[in-house]
Amino acid sequence: MLSGNPAMAQADTIPTTDMIWSWLKAVPDPEIPVLSILDLGIVRNVHWRGETLVVTVTPTYSGCPATATISLDIETALRDQGLTELAVEQQLSPAWTTDWISEDGRRKLRDYGIAPPQASAEKVPCPRCGSTETERVSAFGSTPCKAAWRCTDCLEPFDYFKCH
Amino acid sequence: MSSEDPLFDYTLRLGDSCIVLAQRISEWVGHAPILEEDIGIANIALDLVGQGRLWLDLAGEIEGQGRDADALAYHRDAGAYRNHLLTEQPNGDFGQTIMRQFLFDAWYLPLLKGLSQSNDSRVAAIAEKAAKEASYHHARHTDLVISLGDGTEESHDRMQAALDVLWPYTGEMLTADKIDGTLCEAGTAPDLAGIEQVWNDHVSKTLTAATLTQPESNFMQSGGKAGRHSEHLGFLLAEMQFLQRAYPDAVW
User: Fold this and answer.
1) A137 reaches B (C-beta below 8 A)
2) pTM of the predicted structure, to 2 decimals
3) CA of A136: which chain B residue's CA is closest?
4) How far apart are CA B21 and CA A141, in angstroms?
5) Alpha-carbon gap, residue B34 to B75, rounded angstroms
């Protein structure tokens, strides 16, 4: 381990959960890397169970292949901070909802070219030109969380992060 | 406790139905009529694989013999599967596949809503999660049945033929047996009579909008819930389980 790592940690001082949250903020979503897993709202809880740090995660879609990768990425990120006793646990209920995507996350999605979830899916503004003259091409898209849309003004196709 | 627990069989039925249906519709990947439908079908298969895994992991936990979802999916033969006969029926043409999905969703979604109120918190959590995904499938297949039924003469005739072929496989899902009854009394599962009512309302309303005629025959096939399957399941499992049979316990 390189010297100067803040978490030579576990041996000397136990990192606070605030520190752990800040480390988790740097873990990207594997499918949409501009979003952190905290922007996505899937980390439910971080707590110590004796010597073991337990991170509780809620899956987005039950078959999403990214779920296993996310657990591995969380573990890797925390090991890089010097933590060794780790458990990443899955919690299904309450079920994840796109309402848990942060404001910051919505902005990052838009900047990345993905329309963020809308309360009313009737009018989804184009993430490129902002026009609301858009139409749905398909209710499904390149990943379980997205649908395929198209802008009839700038004519660009785009992904819409569907409400869930 | 093991397999004496009626909840073991009950969760197997749910898990097996999801996995078998996912395997069936995966056959369309790369072959669907248009790209968007191809992607849609692949996404639905993925949701069903995920839900099937959750149900089968829970079945394994209830059984308590150390079997997980993979062991249950890959190391059982047809006679040990508990999926509904509807889910193993061949895809037929695209219309027949959509009709089968529609008839399945019309049962599965209200069932999941009922199960999300289960007094077993593990069942309720999976059902709550799965219902969100299933409602999306339900909406898609309802729309497609209407647009294909009330479409061209050709698409209408194909949808009517699909409905006639699949109709006898719908009774099994809606008819309670001893296991359904026991779990309903225990507060673990909803009463199938209530599900049947929701199913009837939605199916008859949709078929009317689709200008299709509900078959009059009351003859219904059954047996899937007890492990007696149509000739199609063995072939499906032979393909699905090939790798684990040829290279036992191979991992990704």
Assistant:
1) yes
2) 0.92
3) B36
4) 20
5) 35
For an interface test with B, which of A60, A92, A100, A159 has the most B Cβ atoms less than 10 Å from its Cβ?
A92
What is the residue range of A46's domain?
6-96
Q: Which of A27, A21, A126, A38 is nearest to A70 (CA)?
A: A27
Write down the residue that tokens 């010097």 correspond to.
A82
Q: Which residue has the tokens 């508990």?
A: B82
- Chain A and chain B share a number of CB contacts under 8 A equal to 67
d(CA B241, CA B232): 14
Q: Are residues A31 and A75 in the same domain?
A: yes
Report ipTM (2 d.p.).
0.85
A90 touches chain B (CB under 8 A): no
Domains and CATH numbers, chain B: 6-246 (1.20.1260.10)
Nearest CA in chain B to A67: B50
CB contact under 8 A, A92 and B140: no
Question: Residues A120, A146: one domain?
Answer: yes
Do the Cβ atoms of B6 and B187 come closer than 8 Å?
no
A39, A101 in Cβ contact below 8 A? yes
Using CA atoms, how far residue B118 sits from A102, B69, B188, B191, in Å, is 31, 22, 5, 11
Same-domain pairing of A92 and A103: no
CA distances for A155 relative to A116, A141, A142, angstroms: 19, 18, 19
Do residue A18 and residue A58 come from a single domain?
A: yes
Q: Round to the nearest angstrom and report the end-to-end CA distance of chain B.
A: 32
Whether A79 is covered by a domain: the verdict is yes
Q: What is the pLDDT of residues B27-85, one digit of tens each?
A: 999 999 999 999 999 999 999 999 999 999 999 999 999 999 999 999 999 999 999 99
In a domain, A1, yes or no: no
A78 and A104 belong to one structural domain: no
> What total number of domains does chain A contain?
2
Q: Which pLDDT value is given to residue A121?
A: 65
pLDDT beyond 70 at A11: no
Q: Judge whether A63 lies within some domain.
A: yes
> Before A94, cis peptide (omega within 30)?
yes
Core vs surface per residue B55-85: b (16+ CB within 10 A) or e: bbbbbbebbeeebebeebbbebebeebbbbb
The tokens 């899916």 sit on which residue? Answer: A121
**B231, amino acid identity:** E
